[in-house]
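Many introductory courses stop at the sequence. We go one step further.
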Amino acid sequence: MGTAVRRSTPRLTNYSTSVWILFVGFHLGPIFAVAQTIATTSMRALASATVLLTATCFGQGVGPFTVGYLNDLLQDPYGARRCAIRS
């Protein structure tokens, strides 16, 4: 018995993308709130900028490296085309 593949419709795509976008930003509020609470009044802008810079550097610096490393690691057991990770 095969599994049924559901055909994607524009409405389903829009709904699932909207839900995904909603959940992606949930971590930002608490992180910036902690940075604003810890920092003094005159240093709040610098604290927010530092948090944003750190998150950006980590996401764009470590993320592609990790995906490339996992691609190289999984290439031998599974084959090059079979286990390609795409970002």
